[in-house]
Amino acid sequence: QAQLVVSGGGSVQAGGSLRLSCGGSGYTGSRHCMGWFRQAPGKEREGVAIINEDGSTLYADSVKGRFTISEDTASTTSFLLMSSLKPEDTAMYYCSARIWFGAYVSCGLDSSDYFYWGQGTQVTVSS
Q1: I need a surface site. Which of 4, 19, 104, 112 has the fewest CB within 10 A?
Q2: What is the 3 state secondary structure string of 46-107?
Q3: 3-class SS at 112?
Q4: Helix (H, G, I), strand (E, B) or coil at 113
Q5: From CA 121, how far away is CA 118, in angstroms rounded?
Q6: Which pLDDT tens digit goes with each residue over 77-87?
C-alpha cells in the first residue's frame, strides 16, 4: 500500500519562500508520477505541479516561474520549492502520487487521476 508523508509548510510573508517535502513508500517497481495540489477555503482543489518519471514537469499557470517541483528518485521523495510567494498562494497543500503498471503515461494536473494522497500541510502567506 502506497503511503505519502508530507513535511514543510508554515507561515511566511509575501515574497518569501517555503519548501514542501513528500516521502513516498510502498510502490517500488511500479510506474508513478508525483504531484502537488492545493485547496483554499471555499475553493476547489487545484493542481499546482507534477513531475513525471522522466523528470518532465507541468505547472499551473499561476505558479509558473515561482514554484519548482523535483524528485529524488532514490528515496521517492518529491519537493516543492515555492518562491516569491503571494497571499493568494495561501492554501492547504497536498502531495499525491499516481501509480500504475504498464506503459509510460505523461501525467497531468487533474486531481481525479491521483489515488494516493498524503496529509495536507498549511501554507499561509501574509501581505
Answers
A1: 112
A2: EEEEEECCCCCEEECCCCCCCEEEEEECCCCEEEEEECCCCHHHCEEEEEEEEEECCCCCCC
A3: helix
A4: helix
A5: 9
A6: 999 999 999 99
